[in-house]
Fold this sequence. Notes:
Layout: E1 5-10, E2 27-28, E3 31-32, H1 33-44, E4 48-51, E5 64-66, H2 75-85, E6 90-95, H3 103-111, E7 119-124, E8 127-128, E9 132-136, H4 140-148, E10 163-167, H5 168-172, H6 187-205
Parallel strand pairs: 1-4, 1-6, 4-5, 7-10
Antiparallel strand pairs: 2-3, 6-9, 7-8, 7-9
Amino acid sequence: MRNNLTGVILAGGENKRFSGMNKAFIRIGEKRMIDRVYRIYNDLFKEIILVTNDPVRYLEWDFQIVTDLFPTRGSLTGIHAGLFYMTTPYAFFIACDTPFLKKELITTIIDALEPRFDIIIPETDKGFEPLCAVYSKACLKPIEQQLIANELKIQKFFRKVRVKTLSEKSLRGSDPDLVSFFNVNTPDDVNKAENIESQNRRLNAYKPQGIST
């Protein structure tokens, strides 16, 4: 099923809490968040689409750059644009502000894909994770109808399609702390992300190295 998937990155937010600064280019440790996501996507997907309303900023990356087709700003318009432009039956969607996205978690989600479902979505004790999920092309029309009605809540159209949820227990097998779902939404989140990054560096420094024979 993996050959039937596009990787879509949503980078269309207004970033009001960052005084207009584009979150995708914020560095956590030494890496920009967009670089972290792209590195993983480049290993997984032949077709990568980035949805943004500031396309000129992203010309250095090797992916297709598209913009929203509806004037209303929001995650649902980004999902719609990704579905509209992708050439595969399914796409995995992630927001650009997820600095600790794990490749293993993505593979867990996409490996759960079955042709009889239109959405494969993680569900934790905090609820659904709609910006770390698989959507099929069949979701395009229901989303369009919802956007025309100016209804922007992502989960509202779920009742019109076939949804498969993945339990928190199954997700923790590939991401024990569920850090893939950590989003940088505020300046305070940047500080939290830097603390997580520092902890990760310390843990990696103490990992035993392989012994050559």
